[in-house]
Amino acid sequence: MAGAHHERRIGEHFGRFFSFDEDSESDIKNLYVALFCFQVLITILKNGEKQRSLATLVEGNLGHIEEALIEDYIEDNDNLALLHDQIHECDIILSQIGSILSGFQVHIGSISSEIRSLQVKSLDISVKLKNRKLVETKLAGFVEEIIAPPGLVDILVNGEINDGYARSLEILSKKLKFAQVDPLINASKALKDIKQELERLRQKALSKVSSHIIEFFFAMRKPGTNIQILQQNLLQKHRYLVLFLKEHGSETYGDLCASYVDTMNKVLSTYFRVYVEALEGLKLDIGGSSDLSGYGSSIIDIITRGRELLRDHGFMFSLGERANILKEINQPGLVPHISQVNSRKYPYEVIFRSLQKLLMDTASSEYLFIEAFFGEESLFYQIFEGPFAVIDRHLDHTLPNCHDAIRLMLMICITRKHQLVMSNRQLPCLESYFNKAVMYLWPRFKVVFDMYLQSLYQCDAKTLWIDGTHPHHIVRCYVEFTASLVQLNAECGDGQLDMNLERLRSAIDVLLVRLAQNFTTPKLQHLFVLNNYDMAISILKEAGDEAKNLQRYFEEKLESNMMAFVDDLLMEHFSDLLRFVRSRVSEDLLSYNERSNIADIEPVVKNFAMKWRSALELMHNEVVTSCSNLLSGMAILKAAMAQLLNDYNRLSECVKKIPGGSALNRHLVSITSISYEIRKYSRAL
C-alpha cells in the first residue's frame, strides 16, 4: 500500500509535466519519455534501502576527493598567482596594441579619403585632357580646312592645267564647301580673315578653267577637226574642271554650257547641211515631180507611154532588190566624194538611210559625251535644234516632190528600224525625231497612195487596152505594187496600211473588169481575167507567207473565172451537146426535164462523132496559145475535158433510155476512146 501510495504521489507530482495533446505527434513522443522516466523512478523507489547505502558511500568518497583537491590548490597557489600576473601583463600589452591599431585605423581612414580625393582629381584631369585633345583635333582640322598653303595658291594662280591642277581644285573645293556647311563655322572670325583669300582663289580658278575649256570649244570650230577624238581624248580628261565650275561658279558654268551649245550647234548644223547637199548630187532622180513632167499628173501616164518608160519606172511599183536596204540598216552611210568619183547614183531611200545613220551615230556620241561631261541632258536637245532643222527643211523640200509610194514606205520602215537600233543602244535622245519623221512620212505616203488608186479609177480603159488576152502590164505593175506593200507592211507595219491594201485590191478588180469589157466575147473576157489572176497569184507567191490572204482571194477569183471560161470553151465547140444535156438531162441522170425522142438526139450524136477529135485539138491549141502559164493551161484543159466527159456520159445514158436509141449505138463514141485522146494531150503538155 505504501509503495502504491508513493507511486501515486510521484504520478501526481510529475503528471503536470507530462500532460499532452493526443492530437499532437510531439506529445506522443513526450509521453514515451515520461513513461520511461516513470519506470526508472519506480525501480529506484523499489530499491530504496540499497540506494541509501550507496548514497552514504558516495558522500564519503566526495569528501575525500574535496580534501585532496584543496591540498592540490594550495600547492599550486604560487603558480596560479604567477599565471595571474602574466595574464595581467598580457592585458596591458594587448591594450597598448589595441591603441596602436586604433591609431592605424584612423590613419588608414585619412589615407582612404585622400585616395578618393585623388581619384576625383584624376577623373577631372582626364576629362579636361580629352576635351583639350578634341578641341585640338577640331582646331587642327578647322585650321587645315581654311588655310590655303602657299603651294596650293601658286598652283592655282600660276600652274599649268593638268592632273595636278585638278587635284588642287579638288582641295580648294573642299575648303569652299567646308565654309558653307556649318553656319557657326561660317560666322567664325578666323574664317572671315581667310574667306577673302579663298574667294580670290575661287574667282581665279573659275576664270582660268573656263578659258582653258573654251579654247577646246574654239578648236572644234576649225574645219577638218575630228570632234569625237577631241571630246574623248582631251575634254573627257577635264571632267572635274567642269564639275568644279558647276559647284562653285554657276554663272560661269552657264556661260560655258552656252558656249558649247553655240559651238556644237553651228558645227553640226554646217556638217549636216554640207552632207545633205553632197547627198543631193548622188540622188537618182526618178519618181519625183520633175521626172513626171510631160506625162500628166497621173501615175498611170508613166506606164501608158511605152515599155521603155515603164522599164525606167518599174521600181515605183516593184520592191525587188530595193528591199535589201532593210537588211543593211546598220551598214555605214554613203561617203559622197567616193560615190561622186565613181559617178554612182542611188535611190532616195539609200540617201535617206545614210542621212539617218549619220544622225544616229553623231547623236549617240554627243549624247553620251554630254551625259558624262556635263550631266545635262537638256544640252543635247539645244545642240541638235540646228541639225534637226536642217533635216526638217530637207524633208520639207523632198517629200512633196516624191511620188514613189514604195520609196516612202521604205523610208517609214528604215525609220522604224533605226528607232529600234537606238532603243537597243538604250539611248532615248532621238525618240522625238523618229516620231516626227514618221508623222511626216505617213501623210505623204497616203497622198501618193491615193494618187496610185485614182490613176486606176480615172484611167481610160480603151486607151490602155491591148488586143490580147495575156496579162496586162498595168495590172502586173499594180499587183507587184500590192505584193511590195504587203511585204513592207509585214516588215514594219503598224496597221495603218491594212485598209489601204483592201482598197488597192478592189481597184485592181475594177480595172480588170473595165479592161475585160473591151473584148467582144465572154470567153475572151474570162480568159483575160483568168490570165491576169494567174499572174497575180504567181507574183504573190514570190512575196512569201505575208501575202497568203491576198493570194487566197485571187485563187478563189481564178477558180470562178476558170469554170466560166471552161463553160465558154465547151459551148464554142460542143454547143449542141451542152444545150441538149443541160436542158433535158439532170446531173444525176435520174430525171429528164423534157421527153426526148430519137429525132432530137440523133443530130447531136452524129455531130459529136464527126468533129470531137478536131474540136479537142482546137481546144488544146487555143488553151496552150492563150494561157500565159502552162500549169494554168493544164488545169483549164483538165477541167474542160472532165466536164466534156461528164456531159457526153449524160448524153450516152439518155440515148440508152429513149425508144429506138439502140440504132444510134454505132454513132456513139466510147468513153474509153475519149479518155485515151484526152490522156494523149495531157502527155503532150
From TrEMBL:
User: Which part of the chain is the Vps52 coiled-coil domain?
Assistant: 72-245
Q: Which family does it belong to?
A: Belongs to the VPS52 family.
The protein depicted here goes by the name: Vacuolar protein sorting-associated protein 52 A
What is one process in the GO biological process aspect for this record? protein transport
Lineage of this protein's species?
Answer: Eukaryota, Viridiplantae, Streptophyta, Embryophyta, Tracheophyta
Residue span(s) of domain Vps52 C-terminal: 262-565
Q: Where in the cell is it found?
A: Golgi apparatus, trans-Golgi network
Q: What GO molecular-function term can you cite, just one?
A: syntaxin binding
Looking up PANTHER family in the UniProt record yields: OS10G0488300 PROTEIN, SUPPRESSOR OF ACTIN MUTATIONS 2/VACUOLAR PROTEIN SORTING 52
- Give a Pfam family name: Vps52_C
Keywords, alphabetical: Golgi apparatus, Protein transport, Transport
**Which cellular component, as a GO term, is one annotated location?**
GARP complex
Instruction: Say which domain of life the source belongs to.
Output: Eukaryota
